UniProtKB/TrEMBL annotation:
One of its GO terms (molecular function) is dioxygenase activity. It comes from the Bacteria. Keywords: Dioxygenase, Oxidoreductase. InterPro entries: Extradiol_RC_dioxygenase, Glyas_Bleomycin-R_OHBP_Dase, Glyas_Fos-R_dOase_dom, VOC_core. Its EC number is 1.13.11.-. This is Putative ring-cleaving dioxygenase MhqO. Transmembrane segments: none annotated. Residues 7-132, 153-271 form the VOC domain.
Length: 310
């Protein structure tokens, strides 16, 4: 069993409109945009990052807003719900805020003894807030949400799978342990992780397969401290039979990718070098940052990329 994984690093999803996506996360959820850059493989498409003050691993929600992309179809073989952690006793605040902000499909639920508020994003993205009194992570406090109510980071993700058995074994190999179960959902967690410690596996043998599009999660990333730990994880996965990509420089972290038995794309990302490598912490996410290979496109991109704010 591996011991390098620290919990979630980031979750990357697809959107249909960059401006609406930015408004949702920075205004309605009160997160900080910590990076405005572009897709490495499609530089005419933004890659937007939302997180806490500095983009701490375990707090980073990222998006590829492809203009006019078709809407995704939810099903098995995908990340189902992305869950954020909020302080105990704050769901009433968020319920009112969401009503005032016009957030859709808001409902009170409970799972594994935790009070939750489920809601959807602009493209039908599936989200929830969970009250977690043990979460001591510092929130971003300049996004319009008071610090006592603000999002702390990720709590968990749920994986919707036709058969969760093989993916459960993979996660246990990665250092997760089963800590609870409820009906067709098994909860796994990393002990002494980074706060974004939980993965729920929901087995849905009769469900249809998901179709990637706006509102879909593209991949979920797990955190390791540095490149040395990442190489240890990569070797162990390859030795176990997984087809893992070479290490890829993503400017703000190094990444490796592999497909799980259930069809979900996993990434293992380093905590280094972080989002302040090319911007001062006080000004994260303000300027358009481009990968070196796309710097020559700056005049075109600055003219043609959608304006995120007035």
């Amino acid at each position: 069993m591996l011991n390098q994984i620290q919990g979630l690093h980031h979750v990357t999803s697809m959107a249909s409109d960059a401006r609406r996506n930015n408004e949702f996360f920075t205004k309605k959820l009160g997160l900080r945009r910590v990076k405005k850059t572009v897709n490495f493989d499609a530089p005419d498409v933004y890659h937007l990052y939302y997180a806490d003050e500095v983009g701490t691993p375990g707090s980073v929600m990222t998006y590829f807003p492809f203009p006019d992309i078709g809407k995704g179809r939810h099903g098995v073989g995908e990340v189902g719900t992305t869950v954020f952690s909020v302080p105990e006793g704050t769901l009433a605040y968020w319920e009112k805020r969401f009503a005032d902000e016009g957030v859709g499909n808001v409902a009170r639920t409970e799972s594994f003894g935790e009070k939750r508020l489920t809601f959807t994003g602009p493209d039908g993205d599936s989200f929830a807030l969970v009250e977690d009194k043990a979460d001591k992570r510092a929130p971003w406090v300049k996004g319009g949400v008071p610090g006592d109510e603000a999002i702390r980071g990720f709590h968990s993700v749920s994986l919707r799978l036709k058969d969760g058995g093989a993916t459960e074994e993979l996660l246990k190999f990665m250092g997760y342990e089963e800590v609870d179960k409820s009906g067709n959902i098994r909860r796994l967690a990393i002990k002494n992780g980074n706060g974004a410690d939980v993965v729920d596996i929901e087995s849905l043998p009769g469900a249809g397969f998901a179709n990637l599009g706006a509102g879909s999660v593209h991949h979920v990333a797990f955190a390791v401290e540095d490149r040395a730990k990442q190489l240890e994880v990569r070797k162990a996965l390859v030795d176990t039979g997984y087809g893992v990509t070479p290490v890829i420089d993503r400017d703000y972290f190094w990444a490796i990718y592999f497909r799980t038995p259930g069809g979900v794309l996993f990434e293992v990302a380093t905590n280094e070098p972080g989002f302040d490598r090319d911007e001062d912490t006080a000004h994260l996410g303000e300027a358009l940052k481009l990968p070196t290979q796309h710097q020559h496109l700056r005049p075109y991109l600055e003219e043609h990329l959608q304006k995120l704010e007035d």
